[in-house]
Structure formats: C-alpha cells, structure tokens
Amino acid sequence: MAGVILDAGHGGYDNGAQFNGRREKDDTLRLTLAVGQALRDKGVPVQYTRQTDVYQSPIEKARIGNESGADYFVSIHRNSSPLPNTYSGVETLVYNDSGIKAEMARNVNRRLSEVGFNDLGVKERPGLAVLRRTNIPAILIEAGFINTVKDNELFDSRFNDIANAIADGIVDTIGSGQQELGSTYRVQIGLYRNFSNAQYALNEALAQGFDGDIVYEEPYYAVQLGEFRTLDEAVQLENELKQRGYDTLVVKK
C-alpha cells in the first residue's frame, strides 16, 4: 500500500510568512496533522517530517522524506504576497509539470476549489530543495494566502473540509482500491482546546521515547500515542503510561 510523508512547512525559529500575528508555521502544522489523520482514516500509511514546532532546513526535510520509505512527499505551506489582500487562492508547486506528481497536484487543487478556494494552477519550481532533492514524487501545496483576509476566513471556517480535500486529492491519485483500516486502538493522554498546550504535551511524550501525534477533533486537540490492532496491546501501553503519572484513555478508531 502506497505511503505518504507529510511535511509541515517552516518551524522553530523559521516562522514562515506572517500577517497580523498569524504565523505560517502554526497553520501548516495544524493542517498537516489534520491531513495525516484524514489519510489514516482512509487507510493510507502516514509519516511526518515534523509533528512539533522544530526547525528543519529544506534539505533536511528532503532527506527525511528520502529515508522514510514513503512513496510520496507532500509539503504544506501558506502563500503570501508583497501587499495584503492582493491575491486569493491555492496553487500547488512541482519540480516539473509531468508524471504522477503533476496529477496529484491537480487533484488536490480541484478538491480545494470545491471547498471554496480559487484554483491558481500547478506551477513548476525546480529551485525548491524539497522538490529538487526528494527521490520520490513530491508536491508543495500553498493552502491560500496568509495575508489575504478572505483566504484566512475560509481556512478557519472550513478547516476540516480543507484537510479532507487535500487527503481526497492524494487518494484520488494513488488509487481508490486501498482498503480502509479496521478498528485500531490508541492511548490518549490529553485533550486540549489550545494547540500549543497539546504540542507541549506531545513534546514531553516524544522526549520519553513514545510515538504519537496530535489529532484534531473539533473543537479539541487530542494527544494520542501508539496505534494497535488489539485492545490488549493498547492496554499494555496504557499501563506503562500510568506508571509514569499520565492520565490515560484508550480510544478506538
């Protein structure tokens, strides 16, 4: 089954584009995690270049993608223009406009246009390291202009629809024959209204050697660890976490 590695653009001291206190690195991380969950729900194996607010150079992001074993690399960004409220819409960037990556880019744009974005097309950007240095088909999605009020309003009001649209565009490309996953079990260690609080909790868990991510379940951010086919496996992790002082809940997906 084809797998995807998702890259949240920027991170750490690299805020990306900014507008009225809004930072690209925050929008991209939230959206990337939501897209990842939508893909997992459709049975697509997902990895991430980052799940927290850390800096990685574009070359490092490409290296992580190449070493991941994934079949596709999808980087998520927000666009920006020199003057606010000048442009509106989504565009997807590729190294060159050919092959399955170009097909995926068009499918993603089409799905996002159904949510309400203007489709600004597929553009070649051979100079971008995450597109030039990846050894697997790669696209970079510019999910609306961060300095255009109209696009931000759509980004916030239709956030889940946007995440699902990107996931649908990817699945449209890699095939409809993939089977959705059966029930899986995860251990939840926190539920937060504030994304930064969820991120802090995840960072602590990752630092202790656990594997997990943030799952957006409107209006909350859930920090969930592990992913198991059996309840017994999840309970084993839950017991270990309880011994370390965590409040836990096993959830079935």
Automatic annotation (TrEMBL):
Which Gene3D superfamilies does the annotation name? Answer: Sporulation related repeat (3.30.70.1070), Zn-dependent exopeptidases (3.40.630.40)
InterPro entries in the record, alphabetically?
MurNAc-LAA_cat, N-acetylmuramoyl_amidase_3, SPOR-like_dom, SPOR-like_sf
Coiled-coil ranges per UniProt: none
Q: Identify the residues that the record assigns to the SPOR domain, covering every copy.
A: 179-253
A Pfam family: SPOR
PANTHER family from the xrefs? AUTOLYSIN PH-RELATED, N-ACETYLMURAMOYL-L-ALANINE AMIDASE
Q: What is this protein called?
A: N-acetylmuramoyl-L-alanine amidase
What organism is this sequence from? Anaerostipes hominis
